[in-house]
Specification:
The protein is α/β, with parallel strands linked by helices and 441 residues long. It folds into 4 domains: 2-99, no CATH class; 126-356, Alpha-Beta Barrel (TIM Barrel); 360-387, no CATH class; 389-441, no CATH class. The protein is 33% helix and 15% strand. The protein is built from 16 helices and 12 strands. The strands form 2 sheets. It has a 9-stranded mixed β-sheet. Mean pLDDT is 89; it is low at 1-13. The protein binds pyridoxal-5'-phosphate and iron/sulfur cluster (SF4). Pyridoxal-5'-phosphate (PLP) binds at residues 127, 129-130, 133, 135, 184, 354.
């Protein structure tokens, strides 16, 4: 019930801001027109000051101006209307949307392409890092430019607008690469593309027999919920398993308009996930995160990942120690529904992919017992079986008492630690390239 009253309070505040914004001369249906929202996005400091009814000191304003010349600003009127002007400087919406002069403090550890996406790119627009799935950048436009964006270097940069030819080459790459069974459409924001164009991409991908699922990463439900139109839903429903991941970072972003967008997507039968970024001064708090994940699940969105803020240029003021993320997970596991707990990950600088990090629950281990602790601090013993018969796997499925009769057994070379664990693989160690001791042999 508390949620309800909070929401209606926001609505009242929003309506007064909306009327402010519209100068009461434009009818309300423009407000819910996503193209109108994009066209009227706030891209300069003066307009921002005017809309919010604030004034920055001159010196700060000049620095802000410099900041947006380097990292452009673009805020939808809708997302701006969620800012509480009275206390804007601490507002989580403000901090995600409006530049901080600290973005110009480039830290020693900042990297231009921290996730090595360009290195793992066999072809423009495709990042192929994991064995069975690819990231496919189909758009470089975003409804709003998040200040904490990993791809800050690309967003808004005209040089990175993928052409139709480039998209076709990406599709060709996927067609010619049969191990790819999962395609993640990303950007930018794929929902910034026109319906027909996205429909074309989805149709092409779906005609590739080895593509089993398509995922779309979009922040539109958060910053431009009106993009989730009935026509878009109708188009999406035609396509084969599509999963959507959105990007809510704070419970204040879950308001009637975004709730409605999520309802439409969930009602269309699309499984919804959420990826949050841990941001200092925005959501680096166990209570905020607990509230966020509860509100998400209440709206049929499964929290998927919580990202450690990466090492992109100009994000140092947003970074927290990794310990903060572990503390948040400690505050969630056991304390709230298991399926509302995201996996906390550090995206490995240099391109190692996502590495899960969490509190330790395994206290000790002997040859037949494990000692575990739960969220309350209870320490317990799990007695392991005395006569477990291991199925020594030699990949000869026809003569195995487990049932895995596959039409086309996967013949993929095992990678990493799994390779060391596999029964039928002779590898006994992994050695980094350039290990001097080995090279001397
Ligand atoms: C995150 C990511 C994926 C998808 O990873 P999942 O753990 O399957 O969600 C795929 N490719 C790249 C390059 C990624 O960064
Ligand atoms: S929506 Fe995503 S890609 Fe776009 S600016 Fe925000 S974080 Fe970056």
């Amino acid at each position: 019930m508390k949620l309800q009253s909070e929401n209606s309070l926001t609505v009242v505040k929003n309506i007064s801001k909306i009327t402010n914004f519209l100068n009461s001369s434009i009818a309300e249906d423009f407000w819910t027109d996503w193209k109108w929202q994009i066209k009227h996005s706030i891209r300069d400091i003066e307009t921002f000051e005017k809309k919010l009814g604030i004034k920055f000191p001159l010196e700060e304003k000049m620095k802000l101006q410099k900041t947006i010349e380097r990292f452009p600003m673009s805020i939808t009127p809708y997302y701006l209307s969620l800012i509480e002007a009275d206390n804007y400087s601490n507002d989580p919406i403000f901090r995600q949307a409006f530049p901080s002069i600290e973005e110009m403090n480039i830290d020693q550890s900042d990297l231009l392409d921290p996730l090595g996406e360009d290195k793992d790119s066999p072809i423009t627009g495709i990042t192929h890092r994991y064995p069975d799935r690819v990231l496919f950048h189909v758009s470089n436009r975003c409804a709003m430019y998040c200040r904490h964006c990993t791809r800050k270097r690309k967003v808004g940069d005209v040089d990175f607008i993928p052409t139709k030819e480039e998209i076709m080459e990406g599709i060709e790459y996927i067609r010619k690469t049969p191990v790819v069974r999962d395609v993640l459409l990303s950007g930018g924001d794929p929902f910034m593309l026109p319906d027909e164009y996205l429909d074309w991409i989805l149709t092409e991908l779906e005609n590739i027999p080895h593509v089993e699922i398509i995922r779309i990463g979009t922040r539109t439900p958060v910053v431009l919920p009106f993009r989730i139109t009935d026509d878009l839903i109708k188009m999406l429903k035609k396509h084969k398993p599509i999963w959507i991941n959105t990007h809510f970072n704070h419970p204040r972003e879950i308001v009637p308009d975004s709730i409605e967008a999520l309802r439409k997507l969930a009602d269309a039968g699309i499984p919804l996930g959420n990826q949050s970024v841990l941001l200092a001064g925005v959501n680096d708090c166990t209570h905020i995160m607990k509230k966020l994940v509860r509100k998400l699940t209440q709206n049929r969105v499964r929290p998927y990942y919580l990202y450690q803020c990466d090492l992109s240029m100009g994000l140092s003021h947003f970074r927290t120690p990794v310990g903060k993320g572990i503390e948040i997970i400690e505050g969630l596991r056991g304390h709230t529904s298991g399926f509302s707990i995201p996996t906390y990950v550090v995206d490995a600088p240099g391109g190692g992919g996502k590495i899960p990090v969490m509190p330790n629950y395994l206290v000790s281990w002997s040859n037949n017992k494990v000692i575990l602790r739960n969220f309350e601090g209870v320490i317990t013993t799990y007695k392991e079986p005395d006569n477990y018969e291991n199925n020594n796997c030699d990949l000869d499925c026809d003569n195995c008492n487990l049932y895995l009769k596959m039409e086309s057994p996967e013949k993929v070379e095992p990678v990493g630690i799994k390779k060391l664990l596999d029964d039928c693989n002779d590898s006994i160690s992994l050695t980094p390239d350039g290990t001097e001791r080995i090279e001397k042999r």
